[in-house]
Every structure is written in structure tokens, then in C-alpha cells.
Amino acid sequence: MKFAGDKTKAPFVHSARGRGGMLIDHGTSKIQSAPQDIVMQSLQVRRESRATIKKQSPRVIWLTGLSGAGKSTIANAIETRLHARGNHTYILDGDNVRHGLNKDLGFSDQDRVENIRRVAEVARLMADAGLIVIVAFISPFRVDRDLARNLMSDDEFVEVFIDTPLQECIRRDPKGLYRKALTGGIAHFTGVNSTYEPPLNAEITLKTMEAGPDELAMRVIDYLDKTTPA
């Protein structure tokens, strides 16, 4: 299944930093070295200690889906329930981040890649701090979601596909963006004139036409409980 095109990866060359500190050029598949003059500073307090003091296992819950699919609504429902039981959490929401960290980026394919790269790095730092991070971004390209996954420790990354049909997203259109895009008012709008690549192997798929946000949020929390190390 594809939206607005039939591409197997982002249609341009970009680089991603792998877990080992290397740069991978997805246009050539060549591995490039990270800058040689920059050395990672060792820290005395380890990530395990930060998690232990919070009495939780860090996770990065990555919600992906079309605009209007329900990502922000479900992210808020997840955080509300986790917060109520004492978990330390934070939501990285696509719209909010574009008002600050990523306000210099537009919506070209290149800028979308950089948008996700920055957010993935921030999510990794937050997980290192011991938090449960909930990321709610369209993140349309599989290669960039894989980049985010590869930054995290094993089993820390949970990809959640918010599976809402395009026509339902257009019907909802909470921000009026589909109406603008369909009439030529917005270029590079995912699902209309820019590709969305659905996950192939997401840990969780939530079909918003079959259940409400509260029930769907509990499915995510149940998954976390079942997969958190004892």
C-alpha cells in the first residue's frame, strides 16, 4: 500500500548515522566515517542508573501515520495513562517541534528527512535520560523510521502504525490542510502530492476505524507491560 506515488524509498540522497557512529549514504550505500576531530565525552552517570532511579525502562514509542490519522490524540491518551501511574514521559509532537527546534525546515523531501533525523536524535537523548518518549510524527519514509530505530538500544523502539484510511483523514481534516492541498494550496502534502510509506513490520498497528483512542492507547500500554524486561 502506498499513497501519492509508488516509491520504495525517499527519492533523493541523504545520510543517516548508524548506531556505531558511522554515516550511511542511502543513495550509494557507502559508509562514511563520523567527524574525526569530535570525540564522545564519557559520562559518570550511566543511562541504566537514570532509568533505575525512575523505576522504569526507557522506551521510544514512535507513532506514524497520515495527517489527521489520530497520532496526537492517541499520543496524549498514552501519556495521560502512563503519567497517572507514575511513569516519567514526554511527547514529541510534530507540530510542536516545528514551532521550535525545526522551525527552520520546510516540507520538501529533504527537509522532512532532516526533521525526522533531529527528532530521532532528541528521542535517543531523552531515552538515555530514562524517559518513556512518545513521538507523534507523520514520518513518511521507511528509511528514516529505520534510522530512528537503529539509534536506539535493542527492544527500546516501538513503531506504532496509526492506520487510518486516506479518505477518512480527508473527511476529518481537522486543520483544513487536505482541503488546501487538494486545491493546489499546499505542495509536498503527504498522501496527496507526497508519498507516505506505511510500515511493513510495525510492532503495533492501530486501526482507528475499529476502536476509540482510549482503547487504542491501552493496547500500546499493554504491549509495553508485556515486553518490558522484568
Could you give the topology of this structure?
Elements: E1 15-17, E2 23-25, E3 31-32, H1 47-54, E4 59-64, H2 71-84, E5 89-93, H3 94-97, H4 109-128, E6 132-136, H5 142-151, E7 157-163, H6 166-172, H7 177-182, E8 204-207, H8 213-227
Parallel strand pairs: 4-6, 4-7, 5-6, 7-8
Antiparallel strand pairs: 1-2, 2-3
Helix pairs in contact: 2-8, 4-5
Protein name: Adenylyl-sulfate kinase
Active site: 139 (phosphoserine intermediate)
Pathway: Sulfur metabolism; hydrogen sulfide biosynthesis; sulfite from sulfate: step 2/3
Explain what the structure shows:
Its EC number is 2.7.1.25. GO terms for molecular function: adenylylsulfate kinase activity; ATP binding. It catalyses: adenosine 5'-phosphosulfate + ATP = 3'-phosphoadenylyl sulfate + ADP + H(+). The chain has one domain: 3-Layer(aba) Sandwich (Rossmann fold). The chain has a 5-stranded parallel beta sheet with strand order 5-6-4-7-8, sandwiched between helices. The chain has a 3-stranded antiparallel beta sheet with strand order 1-2-3. With 230 residues, it is of the alpha/beta class. Strand 1 and strand 2 form a beta hairpin. The longest helix has 20 residues. The chain has 8 helices and 8 strands; from the N terminus they run βββαβαβααβαβααβα.
